[in-house]
Queue: 2 jobs
Job 1
Amino acid sequence: MITVRYFASIREKLGCADETLELPCGVDSVQDLLEYLKQQHGQLWEEGLKNSAVLVAVNQAVAKRSAAIKDGDEIAFFPPVTGG
Amino acid sequence: MRSLKISIQQEDFSIETECKALRSSHKDIGALATFTGLVREIDGADAQHDKVVSLYLEHYPGMTEKSLQDIAEAADARWSILDVCIIHRIGKLTAAEQIVFVAVSSLHRQDAFAACSFIMDFLKTSAPFWKKSTTQAGEQWVEAKDSDRQAAESWAEGIQKR
C-alpha cells in the first residue's frame, strides 16, 4: 500500500487530505502515480494537480517527478511553501 | 552544532525564556543572534480591504521537523555555531502575533548573524508550512513570494544535501 497526502490549496481543490491505495502495476515513479491518480479521479485531479509548480515529497523528503516509488511509500503533493 | 531545539507548536513562545535557556547552557557563548517573525496586519495594496484579520498556519507533520533539522545542519556545515533554536507556530494567529523564532549562538558574532539569516531564508523557501489569510475580502492562501519554480528548485537542493 502507498499513502498519498495533499496539503493546503491542493487539498482544498481536491476535497481530499489523504488516500491509501495498492501500488498499481506499472506505477514506478511519481510521474506514473500522478497520471494514475488523474485517470482514477478525473477532472478534479486533472485541474488540481496540473500546475507545474506542484511540489512533491516521497517519504517526507522533496523529490522530482522522476523519483521512484515503491510499496510502503508516502507521497505528498503540495503548493510552494509560505512559512516563516 | 552542540544543541538543536526544534519546536512546532500552537502556543506562543517567550523570546526571553528561549534566550535565557541558550545563555545558561554554556559560558563560552560570545554571540547570540535572534530573529522573530510576526503576523503583519497590512498585506496588500488596498490597506483597508486587505487588512489581515487572522492567519492560519498549516504544516506537514514529520516532514516539517526533518526539514528544519536539515536546514540547521546545513548552517552548521557552513559556519561555526554552537546552539540553534527554531520555533514555528501553527494554527490560528492574529495580527502582531509571533509566528517564528530563530536563535543561533556562537563564539563570535559573524557566524551567529550569518547562520541566523541563512536559516530564515531556507525556512521561508523549504520548510513545509502554508499560510491562509483571512481578510475582510475572505479567505485566501498566501502565495509564495519567489517564483514558484525557483522556490521548488532551491528546496530540492536544500533537502538533497542530507
Job 2
Amino acid sequence: MSESSLPPQEKRLIQVRVNGVSHEAQVETRWLLSDVLRHVLHLTGTHVGCEHGVCGACTVLFNGSPIRSCLMLAVQAHGADILTVEGLAAPGGALHPLQQALRQYHGLQCGFCTPGFLMSIYAFLQEDPDPNLSDEQIREALSGNLCRCTGYQGIVAAVRHLLTSAQVTTAPQVEPGAIAEEERV
Amino acid sequence: MKPPRFVYHDPTTRDEALAQLMTYADEAKILAGGQSLVPLLNMRLAQPAHLVDINRVSDLASIRKEHDGLAIGAMTRHREIERSPLVHLHCPLLAEAMPFIGHPPIRSRGTVGGSLAHADPAAELPAVLLALGGHISAESQEGRRRIPAEAFFVSELQTALASTELLTEVWFPLAPPRSGASFVEVSRRHGDFALVGAATQLTLHEDGTIAAAHLALLGVAPTPVRIQAVEALLQDARPNATLFSEAAEQAMAALDPPADMHASAQYRREVAGVLVSRALHTALERAHQGGQL
Amino acid sequence: MSTRSFGEPILRKEDQRFLTGSGIYIDDIDLPDMLHAAIVRSPYAHARILSIDTSQAAQLDGVKAVLTYQDLTLAANPLPLLIPHPALTHPHTQYALAKDVVRYVGEAVAMVVAVDRYVAEDAVSLIDVDYEPLPVISPDHLEVAASPGTPLVHEDTPHNTAAHFVQQVGDIDAAFADATHVFERRLRIDRSASQPMETRGVVARFDAFEQILTVWDTTQGPISIRNGLAVLFGLPAEKVRVTAPDLGGGFGGKIMLFYPEEILVPLAAMRLNRPVKWIEDRLEHMVGSNHERGQVHDIALALDANGRILGVRDRFWHDTGAYCPYGIIVPVITACQLPGPYKLPNYYSDATVVYTNRTPVSPYRGAGRPHGVFAIERILDYAADQLGIERAEIRRRNFIQPDEFPYDVGLTFQDGLPTRYDSGNYPAGLERALEMIGYDYFREEQRQAREAGRLLGLGLGCYVEGTGIGPYEGAHISIDNQGEIHVATGVSTQGQGHQTSFAQIVAEVLDVDVVKIHVTTGDTQRFAWGTGTYASRALVVAGNAIGLAAQAVKEKALKVASSVLEVAPEDLELLDGRVCVKGLPTRGLSLAALSIASNPIRYAYGASAPDLPAVLPTRPGPPLSPGEEPGLEATRFFSPIHATFASGVHAAIVEVDIQTGMVKVRKYAVLHDCGKLVNPLIVEGQIYGGVAQGIGGSFYEHMDYDEHGQLLNASFMDFLIPYATEVPHIEIDHIETPSPINPLGVKGAGEAGCIPVPAVMAAAIEDALASFGVTVDHMPLTPDDIRKFGIR
C-alpha cells in the first residue's frame, strides 16, 4: 500500500492586491511569494535568479517597500499591497518614465534582471533623492541588483537622467507602516 | 530550491507565540524578517518541523527613548531604524552601521531582533550592541529576563536564547555628550557580509582626554569581540596617533581569527588593526565636532 | 524619406516586452497538465554508485516517475562528443544519468517527475544513493593532475590526459638560441563560470496524436538540439521542434549537445505523455552547468637586442573537468589567439588537457582568449620592465603593421581553417587607447597621488579576436501581403538585440522602417539550418546571410514590379517601401502590392490588391516560369572563408588601498575595432557587459574547489559577481577596419569586452605597487592577495 512518508503541507486562502487588482488564491504555506506571483497569479514579469536574496531579480514592492519576493512566504503577503513590473506601464501600454529611461539609455539586454531593477529604482526614487548624486552614489543605490549583460553603464545613465529630469514616480503608493516614537522620561 | 515541509504557525499575540515556542521548543524556528532564515529554508539547510511566523504579533515594533537608552522592539525593521531621527540623534554608532546591512530590500524586511538572534559573526548589529554594552530582553512562558550583550553571543550562530524564548526588545545606551562614533568595515562587494569590521564610540572629558572608549570587532571570531585591554588602554588617555596605533597593535595581539575562502586569519587580524586605527581617528574627529556624523 | 539605419544607434525593438515583464523565458511557460522535474545530483566528486533506493520517493504523493540509468533505454549511451579533434585521444562524456560512477559534484544521478517542484525536491531528498567514495583528483596545482602516480578520473586515460597537442610556427629552438634576452613566467587563471542571471531550463511536450515533439530549451543552439533529439529518439527531424524562448543571458554556458536534462526532460514527457518542465535552480547551476577558465601557463619569450620578439614558447595545462563534451575548443583557441596583434616569427604551443573531478568545462565568453592574452601580455610587460622599455613601447615594436594584411599567423584556428588576420590597425588602436586613458600625464598624476599617500597604477592590454567563424548560417525573408517583412534565421538570442540589429540590415537593403521588420531567431520550425550563437559569430554570419536574402528579395520585388508596370528593372528603384520608376515616384507599387502580384493565382489576397491593375500584363510562357517561385521571399546562406579578426586595446587606472587590499578602478577605456558597426548602441552594450565580466574575473569570481572536489562557494553568497559599485564607468571609442571577407564588412563583438581585462588589471596593480616590486602571476586576486603584495 502506498504511503506518503511526509505530511501534507497546509493550504491557506490568501487575499492580496497586486497592481491594484485584488486576488484570492489557495497557497501552500511553504510556497514562496515569487512562485505564487508567477505561477498562481500568472504575473511572470517578476523573475527568479537565485532564491537566496542576492541577485535582486525578484524584487517587488510590498506595502510600498522593496523586498525580495523569493524570501517571503506567500502566506505572509495576505492582506498586502504589492506592485510588480506589470503595474508600471499605463493600461494602454505607454511606458512608465522609468521604463522609457532604461530603453533610451540601453539599460537592458537580455531583460532578465530588468524587472528587479525597475522596482528597485522605483523604490529608490520614491525616497526623493538628491538630483546631484555622484556616479558612485548612484551605483550604491543600484548595488543589490545583479546584471550580467549591461555592465551597469546604461542603467546608471538611465537613473542619472531620471534624477535630473522632472519625471517622478506616479503610480499609486501605499504608506509603509509607521513607527511610533515616544518620548518617555 | 524550495523550502522543505513544515507546520506553519502565525500567532497574532505575544502569548500565542510564547505558547507555541513552549510547545515546540527545539523543533521550531522563529520567522522574523526572513532574510537569513528563508535562504536557509530554500537551500534546505534549515529543516524545522515547525515555523513560528511572528510578523503578525502586535506590539513588537517600536523605537522608544527611555531616560538612559533607546528601547527598540525586536520586529522593528532595519529600514525604520535607518530612517529614525531618534536613532541618528541618540545612537549614532547604530545609525552609521545600518546602511552596511545588505541592501534596501533586505533592510525592508530584516529586523533588529532577527539579526541579533541569528548572531552571524560578520553581522553589524551584534558588534554594535556589544560595543555599547546594550542588552536583550527575552520572554518565554516562564517569564522575562534581560541578557547583557557580553553574555548573549555564545558562538557562531548561537546565542544564549533558549528555544522557548522570544527576543522581544533590544536596548542601546544613549550616546553621552562629547561622543563620536565610527563604524567601518571591509567587504568584498558593497553590501556583502564584512570580512572584518570595527564599531567604536569615544566619549571625551572636557579636557579632551578619553572618558569612555567602546570598541568591538566583527568577522574576527565566532562572535563579535570587545577587547577590554584596548578599552583600558584608551581610558583617560590623551588621544593621538601614537595612542591609536598602540590600540591597533593591542587589538591585533588579542585576536585569533578564523580563515575562510575570502580571507586568511592573517588578513583579518591585520586589517582589524587597520580598521581600529581608522575608526578611532574618525570617532575622535566626530567627538570634537559634537557627535554628529 | 530615407530609412537608412545601418550604423545607427536605434533603440531596440525587444525592449517593450522586456521592460513590461512580458518577455517569455523558459520558466514563464506553463502548459496545462504540466509536471515538474528535479534532479538528484552527486554530493561526491568521485564515487562508485553501489545502489539507488527510489522506493520511498516513488511512493510520495504527487510523484509520477523516478528515473535512474536503468530506465534510460534510448538514452543509454554516453552523451555525444560535440567537437572531436585528432589530438583528443581520450575523449569522455558523461551519461544522461550516471552509470556506475560519478566523477564530479553535481553529476546527475536520478530524475524525479512530480506535480510541482516543491514535491519533486521532497522526493529527491527521499532517494537514498549508496556511494563508495573513490580518490579525488582536485589539485591546487593543475599540473599535478597529469603527474605520474596521480589517481585516475577515467580508468583508461593515463595521466588524466584527454589530449595533448602542439601547434608551431618556424623554428623555436633556433629562436631561443639566437635570443639576446629570454624571459619566463608561470601564470595562472582560475576556474570560473558564465553564471547568467537566468539558469537553464527545458520544457517538453509530446503530441502522441501527431507524433510531434516540441521542446523549449535555454540553448544557444536549438538546431543542434533538434537534430540530436531526432536521432536519439528515432523521430524524423521535421517532427521535432526546438525553440529557444527569450533567454536571460547565455555567455557560452548554455550551448551543449547535450546537457543531460535536454534529453531527460523530453524523454520523460514522451514516457508520461504529459508536458514536463525542469528549471535549474542557482545551487544546481553552480555545479551542474559548465565552467571554464582554469589554465596554467609556463611561457617563455625570446627577444632580440631591440625588444623584438624572436619567439614564444608556451607550455600550458587546461582543466577540462571530469568530461570533455565540448572537445578541446577552448585550449585550441588559447593556443591560436595567444600571438595576438604581434609578429611571432617562431611560436611553439604545447597544450595538455587534463581531467579533474570537477564540473566539465565548455566555452565561457572569451573561450580561451582571455587565457592566451593574459599569458602574452604579462610576459611582454615583464620583459619591458626588465629591459627598461615602456610597456606601450614594447608593443609598438612588435605590432603587425596596417599594411601587412592579410597576415598569416601560421596556425589552425578552432574552425579548422588558417588563422589569417584579414584587417586591422593595431598601432592606431594603441595610440587612441593611450590618449583616452590620459597616458601622457598619468605619470605626473601618479607621482602626486603617491605623495598624498595614494597608490594609482595604469595597465593596458591588447588583443586580437577571431570572430564570425563558419561553417555557415542562413536566413529566410518574406514580405507578406500587408508589406510586413518576416525574417527567420537559425541563430538564437540571449540579449544581443538581434531583433533590432538584424532588422537594421534588412531595413538598409529594402529601405523600410525597422518597425515593419519582424525577426525570429532560435525556432527550428521557422529555420532549421545552421549551428547557433557562440564565438562572436551571429551578426557576422547570420547577419550576412540576412543581407544576402534581403538583396535577393529586393531583386525579386524589382522583377515583379518590372513585369506589372512594364518597365525595365534598371529603370526602377526601391524607395521607402515602394518600387517606383526612377524620377517618377507616383508611378510605383508598394511592397504589399508586389507581394500579392508575385503569387500568380486567381484571387488576390490582401488590402493592397486594389492597387494592382485588375488584369495583370501577360507575358509569354507559364504564369510561373521554370525556376521561378511565387511570393516575395528568399532563403540565402553565408559561409565565411575563415574567421574575421576583430581587435582592441583596453587601458585602466586603478587605486589600491594597500592596507586593506581593496582595489577601485578609477578609469577604464576601451578602443575597439569590430569593422563596420550595425548598431553602435548594441556593440557598446556588449563591450560594457564584457568588461564587467572581466572585472569579475580579475577580483571576484572563481570556482573555489577543495582537494575533495567540493565546490566551497556554491551560491551567490560566495561566488561573487560584481554589482554596479564594483564596475567602473567605461569609455569606448571605435576604429573601423572593415572585414574584406564578408559583404557587410562586419566583425564580431560579443566577447571583446572581457578578453584582456585580467591582463589589464594585473598590469595596473603591478604599476600601482611598483615600489613593492610586485609581479602579478594569477587572476583573480582577493584583497588578501593584494594586501600581501605590500608586505615586504
